Structures are given as C-alpha cells and as structure tokens.
Amino acid sequence: MTTVLTPASSSAPPTPPRGKQRKPARSPRLRAQRTLLSVTIVAIVIVQVYPLLWLILTSFRTAADFAGGNPFALPSSFTLENYERAFSAGNLWLNIANSLIVTLGASVLIVVAGMMGAYALQVLGFRFSSLVRVLFLLGIIVPVQISLVPLFIDYSQVGLLDTHLSMIIPLAAFALPMAIYLFSSFYEYIPRETYEAASLDGAGPYRIFTQITFPLSTNTIITVVLVNSIFIWNDFIFGNTFVLSDGLKTIPLGLQNYIGAMGNTDWTATFAAVCVTITPLLLVFLALNKAMIQGLESGATKG
C-alpha cells in the first residue's frame, strides 16, 4: 500500500519573501506621541530661531521703515547704513577687542584651574577631598550679586579696579565649580589601570596629567569653554560694576552708546551692532557643536 504525502493545508498563510517583510503597524497611541513630540520640537525651534531671524532682517531695514511701519513686518527695502552707523556711533571694534580679552582670559583660567582641581580631587585624591568637592559644588548656588560690593572695595584697595582682571577673576571664579564638576565627571570614566600602568613606567603625577589626562580631555575642554564663553561674552553685571572708563567697556556696555538724549535709541543701528557681536560666537558654536555634545556624553572607553 502506497502512502501519498499531501502538501500542507492551504489555509496556512504564505510566508512573505525575504526583503519584503511587513512592518508592524504602529499603534494610535504611539503615532500620537510622535506627532506631539514633532510639534513640540518645531515649536521650540521657531521660538529659538525667530528672534534671531527677526534681528538679522531688522538690521537691514531703514530707520524710517522700522519707525513708521510694522516692526515685525518684512523689510520693504534693504540698506547697509545701519552697520555704518553702528561702527561710527560707538567704539564697536574696541568693545569687541575688550570682550575677546576678557572671554579668552577667563576661559583659559577656568580650564587650567578646573582641570587641575578636578585632577587633584578625582585622580590623585587626598584626605578630605570629598569635603573639598562639596565646598566647590556649593559655589554653584552662590549668587554673584552678593560679591559685588566686597569685590569693589578690594579692587579699589589693591589697584585692580577698572582693569580687565577685575572682570576676568570673578567670571572665572564663579564658573569654576561647574568646570570642576564636568572635568571630575569625565575623569571618573578614565580606567584606573591607565594611571597604574603609567606609574609603573615611572611617570609622575605631572607627566600623567600632561601626557594622558590632558589629551583625553579635549572634548570636555571645548564643552567648558563654549558653555562659559556664552555667559562671559554677554556679561553685564561685573563690567558695569568694575569698569569705569570707556576704553575698557565690553560689548554689553558699549551698546549703551546707541542710546541718545532723552532715551532716544537708534534701534536699527543697535540691531546691526548686536548682529556683528553675536556672529563670531555663533559661528564658533556651530563649528564646535559636535565636540561639545561629545564632551557632555562621552568618557574614556574601558577595554
């Protein structure tokens, strides 16, 4: 007797060919969440980008067009006279130079002191290092306003008043706690075996710092510099308190030169001056944005 093998029941669903697998259907709740997230992101981008775009467009409007028409409308004509008045009405180049000196000086001081402080606290370690770290972190919650009067008195006594250092020192000091926190968080992920191997090869703490820790900290350095440079570049409170002469005014102080008699302000020239002053910082931020994100997220890889 011969047994005949019958094929599988035709009721079974056919197997789809490879490369054409059907994607699982998204649930309505997931689609709603994605839509809400997309709308939120678009709204945030509009809120962030619109003021900058409006500032740039307004800097090219004529003064009569801005004063007589809708200030939020598109320019009816474009002109470069606002930029000419921006440089002629105030010492814009001198203000930019002063801001560069203060920003670079404070950034260097923040990076050097922050790296060395974090290296001593996190890598070398010493007695009561945890207490010292807590004291540094407490500096984050200290408001800068309480230091203005004591610093003014001290600066006037030691001859630092109305100098670049009068702005560089407090700006670096108040940014130091956050810098130490960022560097310490990064050093925590560097394998201890790396330091032990360097010590066995005869490297001391200074050589380990310069040849191992410092090269690995490039992205963290960029992060610390960019985060603090934005606040240093736009600082007004320390400059307005400790700077007395026009030759040392930074950009936020120099913008006061565009306010005329009886509070009249040349708005279009002011907007042009603001565009000139924010362009360098914006370009640097866009160029180093990727390194900044890596400095916030990445650490040394163990392996």
UniProtKB/TrEMBL annotation:
- List where Low complexity composition bias occurs: 1-12
GO CC, sorted alphabetically, is:
plasma membrane
Q: Please report the stretch or stretches of sequence annotated as the ABC transmembrane type-1 domain.
A: 96-288
Compartments it resides in: Cell membrane
Q: Out of the domains of life, which is the source?
A: Bacteria
Chain intervals for the UniProt region annotation (Disordered): 1-29
> Which residues are the signal sequence here?
none
Topological category with respect to the lipid bilayer:
Multi-pass membrane protein
Q: Where are the compositionally biased (Basic residues) regions? A: 19-29
- Residue ranges spanning the membrane: these are 36-57, 92-119, 131-153, 165-187, 208-233, 267-288
GO biological process, any: transmembrane transport
Task: Name the UniProt key words of this record, in alphabetical order.
Answer: Cell membrane, Membrane, Transmembrane, Transmembrane helix, Transport
Its family remark reads: Belongs to the binding-protein-dependent transport system permease family.
Question: What name appears for this protein in its UniProt entry?
Answer: Carbohydrate ABC transporter membrane protein 2, CUT1 family
Instruction: Tell me what organism the protein belongs to.
Output: Paramicrobacterium humi
